[in-house]
Amino acid sequence: MGYKVNRHPLVRHDLMEITRLVxxxxxxxxxxxxxxxxxxxxNLFEDFPHIGTLRHDIRPNLRAIPAAGKGVICFTVDxxxxxxxxxxxxxxxxxxxxxxAERD
Length: 104
Fold this sequence. Notes:
Blueprint: E1 4-7, H1 11-26, H2 28-44, E2 53-54, E3 62-67, E4 71-78, E5 83-91, H3 96-102
Parallel strand pairs: 1-5
Antiparallel strand pairs: 2-3, 3-4, 4-5
Helix pairs in contact: 1-2
């Protein structure tokens, strides 16, 4: 059995922000493709929760992976509960480390 993927409540806002940012710049067809690629990366966590680079310097057990070209997905893994918590998703150079630090 794989890991369960949970999302911080503000991740929905992150995805809407990325949709608007890319959509306003490159069009909403491109935006939908970027969001689909981000979702594909998130789906990998069910079977491969330990991918990404550990960033203990920002938050204990934090991992970060690139997604959809200019995106970054930040998450933690709880092996005991077999869960992944997505803390933040940013795009196009947004300060993901600050966003992670602001979220509990």
